[in-house]
Amino acid sequence: MKRTILVGVVFLLSVLLFSVAWAQKPYEIAVVVKIAGIPWFNRMAEGVEQAAKELGVNAYLVGPATADPAPQVQMVEDLVTRGVNAICVVPNDAKALAPVFQKAREKGIVVITHESPFETEAIDWDVETIDSVQYGKNPIDVIVEKLKEAGELEKYTPENPAGFVMLVGSLTVPLHNFWADTALAYAKEKYPFLKELTSRLPTAESVEDSRAAVLDLITTYGDQLKAVIGWGSLGPIGAAQAVAEKGMEDKIIVVGSAIPSTVAPYLKTGAVDWAQLWDPKDAGYAMVYIAKQILDGAEIKEGMEIPGLGPIKVEGKVISVNQIKLMPNAEAAEALGF
Question: Could you tell me the residue ranges of all domains in the chain?
Fold first, then answer.
């Protein structure tokens, strides 16, 4: 009888300990980026790791070897099958991901995106760390200012325009193409003497592809090409290398999104004229933080604070803070510290 009672007590303790261990198991939050191993997403991984440590969750960053929709969709499929608690994605193609996002939510998995504020039907929330409209307008204003500084502004008219081109990560990356659309509409409205010479090119996730594209554009358009805007973080770097190869630092304006430590040397030489970005570390942290709040049952509402980033704005399913970093010169880039 005593043995039976002892066995029963041991069994109950084992069940209790297992239940406590299960209850204490940290949330698993996966961040799936467009492409692994490039500086932008390496920096984002730092924010994910910081959030994991501070919030007590199992958060990590993964991504495909190429910036293509298919392998990213497969990665998310695999995470859904594994049953993680939350999936945060920087989409290559938000529409291609919609079916697997829906499948994840049906299984109770929280789905968050970044750089995709326009395809929100299949997700819980999108998290942005900039004002995207202003971000799209900024390079156009800078191009005009640089033309003015060079004493060239007065010679351009709608009949004799200053030509520019834009490089995006791909033709399906939502935010890159929104910025490009915003820039075009803004230029048409405010600066009709600016003209896009050719449709945006999907090269800005590769230095070499961007370099090759800009070399071709220089050959094709010659003196008509006055500026290049790179919306992906490697676009301005590749453009700068092409401009430097041709000795055209004083003839072609290069602006766009870039990691400070990567772009600073090109700002020093004048191969890049100006850059902007948000800190991808902030974005990584913010996605994991919001995922944890949702999993904890917290209400996501206007004014809620993300540590280090301030109060959020909420519009539909889009959560945003405005943390645009401007780099008019190498000193400003170096001061950002990453």
Answer: 28-130+279-323, 132-276
